[in-house]
Each structure stands twice: as C-alpha cells, then as structure tokens.
Amino acid sequence: MASKTVAKDIITLRGSAAIVSEFFGYAANRFGCWGFFFSVSILYNRGVYPEESFAKVKKYGLPMLLTHDEGVKSFIANLTSQLSEWLEAGKLQRVVLVIMSKSSSEVLERWNFSIQTDGEVVEKGVSREKSDKEIMREIQAIMRQIASSITYLPCLDEPCVFDVLAYTDKDVSVPFTWIESDPKLIANPQMVKLHSFDTKIHKVGTLVSYKNDEWDEE
Amino acid sequence: MILRTPPPKRPRTEIKAAEEGYPVGSGRHLVIYEDSPVVHDQPSEHLLCTYQCRQMVKSEFFDALSSAEKQARDYQSKWETLNDSFCKVEAERNRFMEQFLYVEQELAAAKGREQALQEQLLKEVNDSRERFKKHIQSYKEVEIKLKDEVNLRKKAESSAASSEEKANNLEGQLTRLSESMKREKHSFQVELGQLKKDSKYSLSRKNAELEKMESIAINAEKELVLLNENMEDLKKHLNECLYQKGEAEKKLATLTFQEPNSSDASLLVKHLQEELRNYEVEVQEAKKLKSSYEQIELLREKLLEERSRRDRAESEISKLQELQFSMNTLDELSSWKTMMQNIPDVSSPDDVPAKFASLQKEVLDSMMKLGELNARFKQMEVALDGAQFSKQSAKADAALARDKLKGMEEEVKQLQLMLSTITDERDRLKDLLEDSRSMKGDVGGSEIADGKLLQELQLSIANKECYIKELESTVQMKQEMNNRQQEEITLLGEKLNDEARRIRSLERESDRLRSEISLLESKLGHGDFSTESTKVLRMVNTLAVDSEAKETIEALRSELQKAKDKLKAVEELNNQSGNTVKSVDSHISEKLKQLKEQIATLEKREERYKTVFADRISVFRRACCELFGYKIVMDERQRPNGIPVTRFTLQSIYAQSDEEKLEFEYESGNLSVVVNAYSSQPDISQQVGIFIHKLNSIPAFTSNLTVESFNRRTLS
C-alpha cells in the first residue's frame, strides 16, 4: 500500500490518493465477493465472471475476494493508476461504477463515489494528520454497507457488464486509453446514501442509485 | 382705704348680666352698690356707710369707672384690632381652607390617580403573573414534551442499538456461516478440482489413447489394406513364382539331361535363387503383415474396450456432476436451515430474504426515525433555550414589576401616612377653628390664643405646603416611572417581535437549505453535473473488447492444445509403429511449428494493432470533432428482436446544453435518425424533414445545424 511510504499518522496527498484509489479497486472487486454467500451478488449471479476466478484476501479487516481474471485485473490496475494520477492532481471529482444489462446496455445500477479534495494540500503540498486505524474503520463501515446493500437492491436476472466513469475537471487532458462519454444515467432512480470516509485530504462519499424494480413499483 | 365689710356676693346670673355691658379683659369686677329691689332676708345695717363713705366710694367708683371706661376703650380698640386681625385671620383661614380644600381635591385626585396607578400596576403585575404562569406552564409542558422526546429518543436509540446489535450478530453469524461454507466449499472445490483433474486427466489420457488407438487402427487398417493388396500381389507373385519354380524345376530336370548350356542354367538358377530369396523375403513380410493384422485386430478389440470404458467414465462423470450439484444444493439447504433456525420469525427459506429486507428496512426506518428524532430534539432544545430565555426575561420582568410594586406600595403607604397626617392636621385645624370661634366672645384672654392659633395655622400651612410639594414630587416620580415602564415594555415588545421574525426567517432558511440539500443529493445521486466544469471519461479498452480478444485467444489455445495432443499421439504411434509414420510426423511437426510461429506473430500483430488503433482512434475522434463540430459517441446495442444495431450520438461543440443531442442508428449500411426530445423540437424536426426525409442528406442537416448553433452562440 502506497501509504506505508509515509509516516504513520501523517497523510500526504500521494498517500491519500493511493488509499482512495485502492479502496475503489477493492470496492469494485467487493461487488462480487459476497455474492457467493448470499446468492444475490452482482457479478457472481450474473455469471460475468465464474466463481473460480475469485481469490480471498484479508483487507481492511474483512475477508474480500479478488479476481483471477487477468483482463479484469489489468483493467482495474490501469484504472486505479489513472485515478491515483488524477487524485494527486486534484482533478478527480467523482468515480461511478455503472452496471448495465449485457443485452440491451440499459443501466441498472450506478455506484457513485463522490470525491472532495482539500485544495490547500494540492496547491501547497501540506500534510494532514489522521490515524490509519480510523481511516480503516471508516472503510470497513462502507464495505459492510456495500455487502449488506444486496438485501434491498433488486435482483439482476440477466447477464450484466460493468463499466467505470470518471468525472474530472474540464481542463484535464484525456489519455489515449480514455474517451469522453455520456454519464449513463438512470431515469427516476431509487437512491440510497451510504457512509463516507475521510483521509483529511480526500473525502469520499458513497451513494448507490438503482432502477426501480417492477415489483417495487407495484 | 377704710376697710368695711364687703357686700354679699350676688348670684352668677346677675354677674353675667352685668358683664354683658362691659368689655372683657379686666379681671376685676366693679360692684355698684344700690338699693336692690330684692329684699334680703338678713339685715345689713352694719354694712350701711356714711355719706363720706358714700362719697369716697362714689369717687372711687367714678375713678374706677373712668379707668374702666379707659380700659373699655382700650379693650374696644384692642378688640377692634383683634377683630380686624381676626377678620384677616378669618380671610386667611378661608384662603387656607380653600387651599386646603384645593389640596384635598388634589389629594383626592392624586389618590384617585394613585388608585388608578395601583390598579394598573396590579393589572400589570397580574398580567405578568399570568404570563409568568403561562410561561411556567409552557415550560413545564415543554419539559414534559422534552422528557417524552428524550424517552422516545432513548427508546429509539435503544431499539436502533438493539437492531444494530441484532444486525451485527446476524452479520457475524452470516460471516461465520459464510466462512464455514466457504471453507467447506473450498475443500469440496479442491476435492472436486482434484477429481475433475483426475477425471479430465484420465479422460484426456483415455481420449488420447483412444485417438491414438483410432489413428493406429486407421493406419493399421490402411496398412492392412495396403498389405492385403501387397499380400495379394505377393500371393499372385508367389503363385507365379511357384509356377515359375515348378517350371524352373521342370526345366532343371530337363536341363540335367542337357549339360552343354550350363552357364545359362547357372545364371538362370542364380536368377531363380534370387527370385526365391525375394519371394521368401516377401513371404516373411507377408507373415509379418499377418501378425500385424492380428495385432491390429487385438488393438481393435482393446479400442472397443477402451471406448466402452470411456463411455462408462463419462457417464460416471456426469453422475458425479449431478451428485456434486445435489450436494451443493443440500449444503445450501442445510446452511439455509441452520440460518433459519438461528433467525427468529423465519419458518421457510422464502421468508429469509423478506426477513432480511424487513430487518434492513427496520434499520433504515429506525435510522431515519433517529435522524428525525434528533432533528426534533434539536428543535426542542432550541425551543427550550428560547423558552428558558423568555422565562428568564419574564422572571426579570416579574422581579422588576415586583420591585416596582413594592416601591409603589411603599409610596402608597407614604401617601397614606401623609394623608393621615394631613387629616390629623385638618382635624386639629378644625378643632382650633372651633376653639377660636368659641373663644371669639372672650376679648380679655384672646390675644395669646390668637397668636398661638396664628402660629399653629402658619405651621400647618407650612407643613401642608411641604406635603403638597412632596406629593407633587412623588406624582412626578410616579409619572416618570410609568413613562419609563411603558417605554421598557414597548422596547421589550419590539425586541420580542424582532426575535420572532428572526426565528421565522431562520426556520424558513433552514427549510430552504434542507430542500436544497435534498435536491443536490438527489442530483448527485442521479449523476447530474455541470458541463462547464466537468467532463465524463471512460476507458476505451473495455473488458468487452478484451473479453472478445481473450475468447479468440482461448479458442486458438484450445485448438493448439488439441493439435499438440494429436501430435503426441502421433509421436507415440510413431514410436510404436516405427518407420512408416516418420515421414508423416516430420511433415506434421514442421506444419505445427509453422502454425505456432504464425500464431505468435499474429498475436503480436494483434496487440500492436490494438495499441495503434487506440492511439489512432482517439486522434481520429478528436480530429473529427474539431473538423465537423460534433462529438460522436458510438454504442453497440441490441434491439428486442435480437438484431444488433450501432447507435451514434452526436453533440455539437456549439451546443448550449447537454440535452442538445442527435441520435442516429446504423444498421446494415443504412443510417436513420432516432427521434428524441431534441430532434422533436419544431425547428429541428422541420430541418430533419427537409434535409433528411426530402433531400436525403444527413451532412447537409448537420452542417446547417452547426451554422445555426454557431450563430446563436456568437450572437449570445
């Protein structure tokens, strides 16, 4: 973890960016890790990635699964590296994980991670103090909430794919592996706000919006 | 003076009658002796005076008379002066009486005003008391409500804590169960993997053996056919040779009788021997072929046995898979059952999700209630603070009012004391007046009494004046105090109104802020953003593209593996069979090497193409955007009938809002406009009708739209 390169409780911009991007990387994998047990997880039940492509690791004090799938691994690795770069520059505003139907490309769920960056740290390079334990505790709370969110999210009965959108400042230069996209919104979504965590440099808030299930509308 | 016996004293009535004619003031009484008509019973001869005595008495009498007359005149003058002074005093008294009455009137008015003030003060005190009581009641009610709210909040907190604990316990149980399940599943998976591997290995081995056997069998069949043909040829050849041998023997037999051509015969014999050797060799080969044929038949039988074994193994594998599936379902059912036993109010598996959902909803509801209760508690705290503040202010007002009341009561007491003193003075003055009136008839001893009366009157007048001044000063003070109180009351009232207005404005602002916050949160959750400061990016090398490439690579790899297995089988066949297949193997291995090299080069080329394509496509997209003025986003979609369709979304760089987007669908070489909110606007739909439907030119439509939006932008 990049934050181990800095002093224990002093958070720098690079360390905070690493924590936030790693959290997102784990959170992205997290979406499939509880599916096996509850049989309603997002990626596992959709059969996008088979069961044997996940491996268990301990992170943030909770058991989590990482994928063996090289494509997903490289995708998430490239993603997190680019997100770290944007976070260090203070240009990243939001990261959205979109889950879409494979057949109709209809957006079914949006996991929205809003990021507020302390401008003073970006401009002047000052550091902040916050204990690792407290940051990890906050991340654990969000992981638990993500794990428990499957109890109220509607079931996804069709094969699905996921994509990641990054909301950046207007003046950010677009890397060659990225393109501009529409925000892939859901019409009349249901929204549930989850906890947030704060490294004193970046504050990440989580919110999931999903398409109304037909049964719920009835 | 000659002493003589005094005349007897006359009764009082006679003395008074005598006194009426004479001034008051002298202390001596002159008795004129005269023959009184009243005949005394007692003789008074010893009292008769001589003529001298009478003359002396007359002279004395006249002297006394003259002196008395003088005195009378003096007294009369004095009486006149006294009368004048008395008149003056009377006038003064009247004046003082008038003043006194006036003062009395003023006093009565002051009393009335004082009573009115007292009543007003009492009213104010009562009002303040009532207000204070109301405040206290409201405060008590607020306290009761606060206690109720605190109790509710405690209950809600306790219920939330208990539900959280329950949820945590359930989560812990779920985690434990999941971990145990995972462990078991992992172990089962490992076993299954091992079994699968074993079965796959055995299957693959058997398949390979089968294929090997098959290929061996095929080759052997072919060889058999060839060998049969050869054998038949050889048989024919053998028959021919035998026939020739017989003929040669015959010839030899005949030749034994013909000796001169021995060299030709030897040559012939040699030739025949060679042919015999060849035929023997061929016979041996035929025998070998026969043995190989027998071997082939044995191999065929073995092949059939292996095939049957393979079928049995496959059936067992399918049974194993079914068993594994049933085991999984049994494991899940057992886990669900144990979970159901642990979870209260759950009797069947269908109840569990509902129970979880209900628990989650309960937790969410309790959290929402807790939030609402917290908000209400805070509101109550604010109201309580306000009520306490108002209570304190009311207490201060009540204390002030009490103090004022005490002051007023003291003033009232003072006034009452003053009144009592004044009434005493008045009574005293009345008594004095009465005394003076009664003393009016006595001339002789009235001077001192008049003087005393005057002094007393003057003193009383001075006192009255002092009292009047004090009364006036107290009345002024009271008026000032009243004015001050009224001003304070008006100020307090204004302050209260201002505070109430401020509170209302703050409440309105807080409601507005709350609504703004909820709106912003909904927008945030919805994903709205400002195009002026934000843009949305996504990765080009999506997993779909990677997965397609991966699929092709995996397919190629599986084919490669099959080819490798075939190659191994062929190599083993080669080792078993020997020379006949070597040439074929070498050819196949060469081909395999070539194919492998081609695959490697193709894979490298594919990766290079991908990176170059990504670079070029981004450059191309940017150039297209800048040249034609439209950002183009391409999406692959599938219609409900399963037909894949490519959708292009165009957004002009001169667009004034995010909603100004055109959509086109590309299907089998045809591009068609998709109706959306922007294209259904009247001016846009008109242009669509003209340029696209009538003139069938999409570039003309887009360029016209670009020029219009450019003009709009530049003009605005």
Automatic annotation (TrEMBL), chain A:
Its main location: nucleus. InterPro entries: HORMA_dom (IPR003511), HORMA_dom_sf (IPR036570), Mad2-like (IPR045091). It is found in: Nucleus. One of its GO terms (cellular component) is kinetochore. Transmembrane segments: none annotated. One of its GO terms (biological process) is cell division. Gene3D superfamilies: HORMA domain. Residues 25-208 form the HORMA domain. Signal peptide: none annotated. Keywords: Cell cycle, Cell division, Mitosis, Nucleus. Required for the execution of the mitotic checkpoint which monitors the process of kinetochore-spindle attachment and delays the onset of anaphase when this process is not complete. It inhibits the activity of the anaphase promoting complex by sequestering CDC20 until all chromosomes are aligned at the metaphase plate. Belongs to the MAD2 family. This is Mitotic spindle checkpoint protein MAD2. It comes from Trapa natans (Water chestnut). The lineage of its organism: Eukaryota, Viridiplantae, Streptophyta, Embryophyta, Tracheophyta.
Automatic annotation (TrEMBL), chain B:
GO terms for cellular component: kinetochore; mitotic spindle; nuclear envelope. SUPFAM superfamilies: Mitotic arrest deficient-like 1, Mad1 (SSF75704). It is found in: Nucleus. Its main location: nucleus. It comes from the Eukaryota. InterPro entries: Mad1. GO terms for biological process: attachment of mitotic spindle microtubules to kinetochore; cell division; mitotic spindle assembly checkpoint signaling. Keywords: Cell cycle, Cell division, Coiled coil, Mitosis, Nucleus. Belongs to the MAD1 family. This is Mitotic spindle checkpoint protein MAD1. It comes from Trapa natans.
